[in-house]
Amino acid sequence: METILSIKNLDKRFGNIHAVNNLSFDIKKGNVYGILGPNGSGKSTTLGIILNVVNKTSGEFSWFDGKLSTHQALKKVGAIIERPNFYPYMTAIQNLELVCKIKEIPYNKIEEKLKTVNLFERKNSKFKTYSLGMKQRLAIASALLNDPEILILDEPTNGLDPQGIHEIRKIIKDIAAQGTTILLASHLLDEVEKVCSHVVVIREGIKLYSGSVDEMTASHGLFELKVATDSDKLMEILSIYDGISSLKNEEELIIATLNKQISASEINNYLFKNGIILSHLVKRKPSLEQQFLTLTNNKS
Ligand code: ADP
Ligand code: MG
């Protein structure tokens, strides 16, 4: 699969703040990537670096397998990293014509892109009459005018009402379905789950996880177990049970991570037959979801 962007050991410091810390990941053609992390975790800084508006401290990134200079490569990138800013007294069409003029691209894509973002009916309305959601959609249309290989969005639904959020997410999915690679930054777990095929989770500039969103949701969770006596025996008996991928001791508890679906009663039965009576048994949600929730609830 073609690599659109490769980031290696990227680092950015603002004085004492380590905004991006040794970050590495690849973007492959056709996927929808989310950079997920709480506010202040380095998402916008990372996007700024790859778009050449923020200088990196160290590390590397290369666009399109390094076949193009960053300057050339960025002509094949559509990005919205700031609040949409158009001329208030000009219509959608007039604003997009101006963008075409500045970027030296023909006008012939304007109507098509307005249709993509469901603004065709309002193409002759002045920008200042648009809702925030419509403004954001116009920004997306603008970023699509040059048929980019990849569309980059920073917190695309921030500040929108539920209807506006829904519309933007649907449009992003439609654009992805037409084959455009997408990279979006978000502090919202459910946004990434709903829109993205892949996720890079960061906190304080450090990558915590990267992989497919499916894998994340296919996780089978874990058990917390405890016995009054002999926890060594419990460990031993659990270790031969099919479906437990790892065991560890955490303070008073034994944590058993599952690689297939096992119910609490199944495991309880099995242990009872082996002479073990538990004093504590809890099945927890997938650990990654826990991690996500901790990330998004506590920090944002
Ligand atoms: P996110 O987009 O995930 O919310 P940012 O990339 O905006 O996070 O910020 C990451 C960290 O870098 C934060 O601690 C932020 O305060 C800091 N930061 C971002 N831009 C600057 C800047 N221009 N000068 C100083 N600190 C900055
Ligand atoms: Mg940001």
Automatic annotation (TrEMBL):
Origin organism lineage: Bacteria, Pseudomonadati, Bacteroidota, Flavobacteriia, Flavobacteriales
The keyword Transport belongs to this UniProt entry's keyword annotation: yes
Family matches, as PROSITE patterns: ABC_TRANSPORTER_1 (PS00211), ABC_TRANSPORTER_2 (PS50893)
Domain ABC transporter as annotated: residue spans: 5-229
Swiss-Prot/TrEMBL keywords: ATP-binding, Nucleotide-binding, Transport
Keyword Nucleotide-binding recorded: yes
UniProt name for this protein: ABC-2 type transport system ATP-binding protein
InterPro entries in the record: AAA+_ATPase, ABC_transporter-like_ATP-bd, ABC_transporter-like_CS, P-loop_NTPase
Signal peptide: none
GO molecular function: ATP binding; ATP hydrolysis activity
SMART domains registered for this protein in UniProt: AAA
Family (UniProt): Belongs to the ABC transporter superfamily.
